[in-house]
Amino acid sequence: MRFPMKIVERLLEGVFKMSSSITSIVILLIIIFLFKEGFGLFRSPVVENGYGLYINSKNPIADINPTQIKQIFDGEIDNWKTIGGNEESIYLFRFDEIFSIYTDEELGENYQFLPQKLNNIIAENSNIIAFFPKKYMQEISSNTKEIATKNIEITDFVLGKEWLPTTTPSPLFGIVPLVLGTLLVSFLAILIALPLGLGVAIYLSEIASNRVRGIIRPAIELLAGIPSVVYGFFGLVIIVPIVQKVGNISAGETAFTGSLILAIMALPTIISISEDAIRNTPLALRESSYALGATQWQTIYKIVIPYASSGISAAIILGIGRAIGETMAVLMVTGNGAVIPHSIFESVRTIPATIAAELGEAPIGGTHYQALFLLGCVLFLFTLILSIVSELISKKQTSKTA
Amino acid sequence: MMIEAKNINFYYGNFHALKGINIAIPANTVTALIGPSGCGKSTFLRLFNRMNDTIQNTKLTGECLVNGQNIYDKTVQVDDLRKNVGMVFQKPNPFPKSIFENVAYGLKVNGISDKKYIAERVEQSLIAAALWNEVKDKLHQSAFALSGGQQQRLCIARALAISPSILLMDEPASALDPISTSKIEELIHELKEKYTIVIVTHNMQQAARVSNKTGFFMYGELIEYSDTKKMFLNPENIQTQNYITGRFG
After folding, report:
1. Which residues form the domain of A131?
2. How many domains does one find in chain A?
3. Is B29 helix (H, G, I), strand (E, B) or coil?
4. Of the residues A53, B61, B83, B181, which has the fewest C-beta atoms closer than 10 A?
5. Contact assignment for A294 to B79 by CB distance below 8 Å
């Protein structure tokens, strides 16, 4: 009878082994996919795919960066001198202007003369910067030169102060405003949630009777189960108008509003983890403190809180992790202005909100799509760092208990 | 009499843990409370610094007197009582603080902030607990760096720092090795000069070695209470005799 039993055990063991390895492989593949798609961004050219920027070869400018391109095409820079060239006003030439200069006959039936005409225009104007499809400039003549042929660089992404993923000719993927927005909203949320959460945790573990605790604790855990879109809706309908009225500002969708919602959402995590940490303080320590004539409050703030401090820090970090990754509610109440915030009563846009809002309109495989994946990588790194830190802290906690 | 119990009954919910206990303990003696597990001796000990107050759903009848004062009287402040009645627990349980801070804790929570006085008391208490020579060079290291026996002596020093007149000890050596145990026993011997000590112990040799008087508890009753010598050589009660000789318990 032992023999068939053994086969079943072996089989089960195999199944468990397989499921665990499949799970790990899937997770690994997801991460690899994320980074592979994301890092494709740095293999994409600065200028929109398939298009080129051309100047007269007499122009001394060797190269320009994406921000300068954007400023030139927005009219903010109108003289070559500003970016180190000759004292000459910039002549901005967009592709469709060719049709107002030449008639269809002159360009030929199949536009076969178009490249020649474009070449002429560039050759005649030493101050020109022209933007048109690369296919009309297959053989670059001695009169023209292409600029901004480089790929997007990591510094453009990491240090860029503007997130304008759909501007032409060269989109800007600077994550600084998004990172700052995410961090601002998350840390503000923790600043609000921490005193509240810690207060509730102390009340539940030290003061409340078992009956009161039996009611409040499940209620708080219920908070964690509410879908985030409901929080977002609640925030949009209730908190946004209140912030707008009380703060006397033109729009209530601000970083502060997002933080308030996130604080409410982070509360269950903070409360339950820090309450567990406080409860885990050995009874012997409390009793020794009481036996030395300490009051309940002295025991709480001199013995219990210091003892539970690593658990409380883990709660804070997990709360931040929750806040950083939260998407829907934040998307609904922060206004999503992708600018570097100067006050908490300004609109901000977080990383997850950006991904959620823009992925639908980003063509698959395009630079915008790749940039959004790279944002996902950045978010992943944030939460990875947070969970490593909380792991280290709870390890410290275990070694202290042992 | 330093400590007196008059017709004590104590209940955990419906469980009748102590049944009509009467006892009188004179000052500057060591009294050992012995008996099988669950007989109520620790519960009884914890009545005298009102440690049972923290347990929910308990009931007490009768009188607990310390220096003639009923400590369960409404006018008695628990914190004041505990300053006078120190306690040492079964397992060494130093606070997660430095050695110095552990001993100073009782003084600080009782509102003493004079640093010079605190430093003096810490030194005196560590000397009294026979730990000073071992720790004087590392007062500001964590208390967890000490051995189990040293930690327990630190806990005794911690209790002595607030100058109690009574010291309750709940199996203070049960978690220690024989050498540490004998150090604690020597210490109890010395401390008896200044303090009234009540010690709960499972170890009958220990009770015989350290105590002047012994009380034998069983099933929540105080079966016998007399001089230790008499108790161990010539017990009055047959149950006591059975327990002491190891035939039961």
Report:
1. 51-150
2. 3
3. coil
4. B61
5. yes
